[in-house]
Specification:
Elements: H1 10-15, H2 18-26, H3 32-50, E1 53-56, H4 58-74, E2 85-89, H5 116-123, E3 127-132, E4 144-145, E5 149-150, E6 152-153, E7 156-160, H6 166-174, E8 179-184, H7 190-196, E9 199-202, E10 221-226, H8 229-239, H9 257-260, E11 269-272, H10 283-298, E12 302-305, H11 314-326, H12 333-336, H13 342-351, H14 356-377, E13 382-386, H15 419-423, E14 427-434, E15 440-447, H16 452-465
Length: 475
């Protein structure tokens, strides 16, 4: 179906935004099979090095692509993602495809149903490529698990690609197609986006349904990792909306995100905090983020550097709830402890032995903390911060070598993300530059609850001013 007029080679197809692919497929300038074959070949060539897939399903992808091509040629009604390759994170349940959650405990576990986000991707015509890697049960921000080993950052092999949407971030940067589903319980979409130099959006809690519903006090969000803001808007449009089986999913109307995002941000009131009043940040990261904030000033936004009162209240809450909620896995320890990630085991044990009274007291503090965040956001359209305190570091470490070591506390370099899991606000990581070592850095943009649109508009404006999608890792 491809012809000389398209001027598209296979590598172009691998890096082409979903918005452009859908248009080209519907216009019959390129076929779903051609796109899928190009992306599958890219994956097969790079996977021994990147290790972004827990389960790769090329046969199923080609079968789906052939059906998608028949739909195009027969004039059938086509969905918003028709013929576009998509990856699914290995924490997300998939019918007939293993969901192993990065753990030897669940090796070979194959569910018999799809999570709602997967069903909606399929209904919209997306082509599933397989399951991307995650740390064991998604517990940490480092791209390594006992089951799959290290997932590399495409900008430097052997370095942290971020997590827990590890393979999604790595694959997005490396040209494994345009759309990558992730989930985010303490930064697990925004951290891979930061480390890998792509765009990651954590929507408002409940905007995209999550089932089975996690037992972690409404911290886990579902969202996309992409190379363009418009692709994230397209993904959100295709997958958002209430569903009864997820009682936490939002019944609020879903805006037409692709139609409504535009790069006009003049007049927005933006609060900027380089440390939330307490966080340690590497100097190179601080400098790149501060320069990025200047872009918004140039675009006509009102910028004020602030120290939010809620900031220093976060670390104790973040660590308490992270460790306590990992005790959901404590029943595995008797049989599986020696085969599990030692840091996860330590985290589970640190969270054990808490009383109901202690948990409820900390929940009361969390409720007030969330109230303070929402009150703070009433005065601002957006809050911007670093996405993460450090650039990528070796993925066989839990902390960078120049940071204090701890047996399980990786949150020390991720103090900017988990507050907005606790509060449920939408937040994104936007690529904002590279360190002297050539490693990406992200700027976090946080919005009011339900206002993904302002986050997307600000990200789109930054994308126009400081484009990033043309930058490809040297793998």
């Amino acid at each position: 179906m491809r012809n000389a007029e398209t001027n598209m080679n296979d590598l172009d197809l691998c890096f082409m935004p979903a918005t452009e692919l859908v248009a080209a497929i519907k216009a019959k300038k390129v076929s779903p099979v051609e796109v899928t074959k190009a992306v599958l070949a890219r994956i097969e060539a790079l996977e021994p090095e990147l290790n972004a897939f827990a389960t790769f399903t090329p046969e199923l992808a080609l079968e789906a692509a052939k059906k998608a091509e028949i739909a195009v040629t027969s004039g059938a009604e086509l969905g918003d993602l028709h013929g576009v390759p998509v990856t699914i994170k290995d924490l997300t349940v998939t019918d007939g495809i293993p969901t192993q959650r990065g753990s030897r405990i669940l090796a070979g576990n194959t569910p018999s149903f799809d999570a709602p986000v997967v069903s909606r991707i399929k209904q919209a015509g997306g082509i599933l490529l397989g399951k991307t890697t995650t740390p064991e049960f998604g517990w940490k921000g480092v791209s390594q698990s006992p089951l799959t080993g290290i997932t590399s950052n495409p900008w430097k092999l052997g370095y942290n690609a971020g997590a827990s949407s590890a393979g999604a971030g790595s694959g997005a940067a490396a040209g494994y197609g345009p759309l990558h589903q992730g989930s985010d319980g303490a930064g697990s979409i925004r951290m891979p986006a930061h480390f890998c130099g792509v765009f990651g959006l954590k929507p408002t809690f409940g905007r995209i349904p999550n089932f089975p519903v996690p037992n972690n006090d409404q911290s886990s969000h579902v969202g996309p990792l992409t190379r363009t803001v418009a692709d994230a808007a397209l993904f959100l449009q295709a997958t958002a909306g209430y569903i009864p089986i997820d009682h936490t999913s939002l019944a609020a109307p879903v805006p037409d995100y692709p139609a409504l995002i535009n790069p006009e941000v003049s007049g927005l009131r933006i609060a900027f905090s380089c440390d939330l009043g307490h966080a340690r940040v590497d100097p190179e990261v601080s400098e790149l983020v501060a320069a990025a904030v200047g872009v918004f000033a140039d675009l006509g936004c009102h910028i004020e550097e602030i120290t939010p009162g809620f900031g220093p209240l976060g670390p104790e809450l973040g660590r308490f709830f992270w460790s306590v909620h990992e005790t959901n896995l404590a029943h595995y320890l008797e049989e599986w402890e020696s085969a599990m990630d030692p840091g996860l085991v330590a985290c589970i044990k640190a969270g054990g032995g808490r009383s109901a009274e202690e948990y409820l007291a900390m929940r009361a503090r969390k409720i007030d903390y969330v109230r303070q965040i929402q009150v703070f956001m009433e005065d601002w359209d957006l809050l911007v911060t670093p996405a993460v305190s450090v650039a990528a570091f070796p993925a066989d470490r839990l902390q960078p070598a120049h940071w204090p070591e701890h047996v399980w506390d990786w949150l020390s370099w991720a103090e900017f993300s988990y507050p907005f899991n606790l509060s449920g606000n939408p937040a994104a990581s936007v690529p904002c530059g590279f360190t002297n070592a050539g490693l990406p850095v992200g700027l976090q943009i946080v919005g009011k609850r339900l206002d993904e649109l302002s986050v997307l508009r600000a990200a789109a404006a930054f994308e126009v001013a400081r484009p990033w999608a043309d930058k490809r890792p040297p793998i």
